[in-house]
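Pilot study result, target chain (299 residues):
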Amino acid sequence: MAARAVAAAPASLLRGVRLGGSWQRSLLLAPAVIILLAFLTAGIFADLLSAYDPEQIVLQERLIPPAFQDGGSIAHPLGTDNLGRDILARVMYGARVSLLVVVTCIPASALIGTLCGLLAGWRLGWWDRFLMRIVDVQLALPAILFALLISVVFGASLLNVILIIIIFSWSGYARLVRADVLSLREQEFVVAARASGASDRRILFRHVLPNIVNTIVIMATLDVPSVILIEAALSFLNIGVAPGTPSWGAMISEGRNFMTIAWWPIWMPGIAILLVSLTGNLFGDWLRDTLDPRLRNVR
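Predicted structure:
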């Protein structure tokens, strides 16, 4: 009886249920979009939005609480750190560092990994074994120890952070793209293109690559929180950005020595990392559900 009732339900009612689920997901996505836009705005326009130099030391104003706490000042809405530097300014400039790492590392990692995955999945044989063994070796390397080695040899710098993240990120794209190419190379449209005399380059970039672009975009979006967390972790260990550079991880590392008397130097950058990471994951999940036809109508 229940099955007959469901079968007899009006089509418009069933469409309304599906639209309701989509509307709810869009409603949950709105705060994520707002936070991500705030992150982008702070990173791009930190010079215009900040009233203070993030590296300016004013010892007379050290460890001022946030404005909403007793003893706080509206001049420093999020308080100051142990050297009297404005935390709001440092959080905004820290967003710039994270944004620079994201826009540099993710496209470079995706490009290297995509080219290697296309070559390995299409050529197979010696090329496939060689490239995949490189991926296996890279995955076996401990990232933190490798970062420590780079820091000891070349010193802490933003460039070293970018290089480390690229080295340890491209392999994921290579394995994913290779798997998709292996499944697409035997499809009828690829076989037809090969039979018509199309070159390997034309088949890969005209027929295969457009069919895996969505997968690459989704993975790149989901990588944003990971890249931010890696940069923050390296900076926290003092093997990331140069000392004194405003970075969320470095701010937490500097504030931990004063956490018993002042909570805000740690909590403010920590909240920024948490919000951007969570909203980035939420946006990536939404993009995956939107672009992947296999998941589009699951919920």
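One observation from the pilot: Residues 58 and 222 are 39 Å apart (CA to CA). A full batch analysis is planned for the follow-on phase.
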